[in-house]
């Protein structure tokens, strides 16, 4: 008779997973090493089980995966064990439990303080997680802009206001400009004097000129070199520059932190087509939906996703079977369409450049009697940029149909082009302004280094352009909601005309709305250096937009027939937002390090560029600290630091590849376990027969 352990071992050798492992090893291993490996794996599993049991014993009874009767017995045994402990250990355990309970209660109460918690949950219940992700993203931008406003206001605006009004025995220190011609220090803001009509105030409010130009909203207000509060000297130029670096670093770190989780979900979701199919079939339903219409739309969206997957598989098969003539025809057509796209983008960029130059040269040459024309001329760049942002995506959506891409790639490419046209328009506007500021024809820039006649305080002028873009974008969003969405809804509901019914309710396109607010956020990041209170305006703007979009969604729009998953949409939103932030680094870096600062206004009047305040401050440090800082900025430190970073990067890449292989092995193991189960079921069925 065989030993009791031999028969199970022979039986386990017949499992599909064991046979696959034997084939993977090449079949050269003998049975005994396999048995040792099996015993070793059983020992490792036993050790892991004991460790997990020990961790579970330390948890409260209610967290154990047991029925209520066993939980009560576990609780009684834990209380009996507690009675045998010393007073010190009893006090520590009681204190730990009380602290955990207090923290959980505080966390539960703090959840009620989350901004728009009830509104976002109701939107999620009616329209699903895809649209909910847009409103959550909008809430994130409100909080981000509010924190940026608190940061800039605390370190830049508040010390300036305190010093100008003499609060806390504070005084202002002015340093006379050195080696600067007097003509460069003349700056006379166009403030309103005498009798002023109401429409003049309205024009100033829309354009940022007049009474707003001399307020703390713009760069020219902060013409202070230092603030003395009692005996403490506050270096305002250094604080101004460091606050700029701080809000950019804060935005970057916060966006990266939020995007990591979305990247993990996106990586897992796109890893395997079969897994994506299983997710749609078995886990695709959104259980947050309570509205019948939203449920019906979710059914249609799941059906559309499955149809899209099948269509993509057919297209992949069709692509694989294409002949050389078909490939040549499609590639030629794509090249031709991309040439058209480049021509459209070039036309938009050239129009923005010419309009900006015209606006800057003629906005101050029109009499006050024609204030409406003056306001229109000042807003010409904003109008042209808005038209380009509206017309460009429509043309791109029409042209993409002829390029014969898969549906998923069509969406990504269209969105990529829309992102580029929106963000690049801002860059072209700034380039046009810099070309005017640095236009040194006929020795215009010789005394000051910039066009001081047209731009005595060029930073405030750039801030006014960013302010006008922000205000005009807000006006357009409100106008579209009031004069397009609501009249269209009324016509659809009360007019039986076939043409009106064919148009129907407009869909709530998540991607278009996200690009809309990311465009405004990029303007805010760029403009905060030139207009320190612009984050406060952005906070109020997004706060109002939340309620406007909510009303528009509930009363005038319907969810898109081609929705995007919440996890992938959150990651996409943050990636596009990160692109906007990286774009903001370029104009800010050029403005701080390359363009000469204004000599007639601002905290950097006594520096050639804004960056020079950093080395000037370092020169005031002790000699030893100066050597350390300048050594860190030298090539002798930069080259080894770069080499170390490369080594760390290679290590992280190798680690990621190793993790990827482990994930693939675990997936194979899951497949083999399912085969083992089928094998065992078949054996049991045969034994029963």
From TrEMBL:
One GO CC annotation: plasma membrane
Region annotated Disordered, chain positions: 1-84
Biased composition (Low complexity): 34-48
Record-annotated TMC domain positions: 457-567
Membrane protein topology class: Multi-pass membrane protein
Predominant cellular place of this UniProt entry's protein: membrane
Subcellular location: Membrane
N-terminal signal peptide: none
This protein's record includes keyword Repeat: no
Gene Ontology molecular functions: mechanosensitive monoatomic ion channel activity
Protein's name according to its UniProt entry: Transmembrane channel-like protein
Organism, scientific name: Hylia prasina (green hylia)
